[in-house]
What does this fold into?
Amino acid sequence: MTATLNPPEAERSEKPASRRGDRIFAGLARGAGLTILLALAAVFIFLFVEGWNGLNAEEATYRPATDFLGYIGPLILSTILAAIIALIVAVPFAIGIALFISHYAPRRLATPVAYVIDLLAAVPSVVFGLWGGRYLADLLQPVHVWLHDRLGFLPFFGPDPASPNGRSLFTAGIVLAIMILPIITAISREVFAQTPRLHEEAALALGATRWEMIRYAVFPYARSGMVSGVMLGLGRALGETMAVAMVLAVTPVATLNVIGTASPATIASNIALNYKEATPSRQSLLIATGLVLFAVTFAINFFARWIVGRNERKQAKA
Amino acid sequence: MAKSIDVSDLNIYYGDFLAVEGVSMTIKARSVTAFIGPSGCGKSTMLRSLNRMHEVIPGARVEGKVMVDGQSLYGPDVDPVAVRRSIGMVFQRPNPFPTMSIYDNVLAGSRLNSRKLSKADADDIVERSLTHANLWNEVKDRLGKPGQGLSGGQQQRLCIARAIAVEPEVLLMDEPCSALDPISTSAIEDLIHELKSDYTIVIVTHNMQQAARVSDETGFFNLKAAGQPGHLVEFNATKKMFTNPDEPATEAYISGRFG
It folds into this structure.
């Protein structure tokens, strides 16, 4: 996630900074950069040390499964399914809103819309959880039935009947989508607004409509920033705890069906739901699942970066 | 293909601010018309009003008439997008699309509105436009490379190729050489001479020698005072402007007494 940030200015130049102000600032910048790496390393070490015993404990610890993979498999599946639903719903909305704010809306309207979207980020996740579980789930229940009737042949919407109360992974994914919308919107909006005027005018002067101008000038310029925004959103969707724990009806049985009566918890919500009542060995297991979540998030981020980087390298070589 | 432009009593506003006042002129087809004048006198705004590019700034509007071969540019049913398709523009700094290859840059305009092009047609447009822009021989072996890898002068010629690929009626150039070295400048000026046989060209320049070298007619813009709108002081054949102008202000500017 930090790949878009430039390395601290100080590390780029070889010459020693001569003025005191320069030296102080260079030190602060370097310190800040190192601190975040240290913090990340500390989290990793904690997870590793505390979770190690959870990786091969007695069979009973993994109940109802019998080993670690059997325990975490359904959780990973749910985590990823929920995050995918959230991204599918949130990304088009977020890009659309960001474009509206940066390129379509008159300034009078753009500023308040941007402000309201930012406010959405300030709503605590527990509130989203309450709203999602008590209100949105009821509201979306007919949608579950509709999806099951029309698309029930897909493993995601069948073959089991649709959830009678809407407290499914699908609803959880929608709640997550609303929660990650502000961050993707905010980042996309900022990069869209920074598109060089020169490139926009190049497209317009050729007779591009506004949408064509956006395709020619804005998207190519903003692509890497958009990916950053989506990755931050994805990170939040994978790790979100409270909202999912409050919305989702939980079963330990793995299923692809996202609109069924119950799904396995996501990794993060499973930790929140079980940590307090857990025995020490069970706690180790939960921390180990946290380690896996950490690794999954990392892997997805690197993979996405690699894809973007590969496209750009291909372009540079061509 | 080339068309003449008639401007009468044109006022250009940005919101309430009157930027250019009372311009009337006739720009002849198949000729080069230069706009000169001190910074901030509205010559770029004037140029942009000829393909409605000034409307990119919110609140921009005009009063008066601009007729291209008898057709009003600002009629109620005229789409600015269509206007810009037939009146091309080259900018102060070269601006090829950074993520596109040389080949795709030339075709950018032709591909708008998702018009379908056969491979043969596309190749043909690319070769013809680049040849026309005196760039073909330099880039024909690396059409797939990004346009930004070219030198500044080559990039500017690429932008000219991109503009003429859609066969516009008029070509507007906003200080096309101001970011280029003298050799590239000379290449662009030669190109302007050649393009004149097919296109109506209007060029804004800060360089009076350049105006004298490339243009057939010249318009001199000036401000009455700071904060006042720009206006057209004199519009005449270039030869006359640079030897025996009608207005003393023109002579003062051209001989370097101000500006």
User: Anything to note?
Assistant: Residues 1-5 of chain A have pLDDT under 50 and may be disordered. Chain A has two domains: 1-55, 60-317.
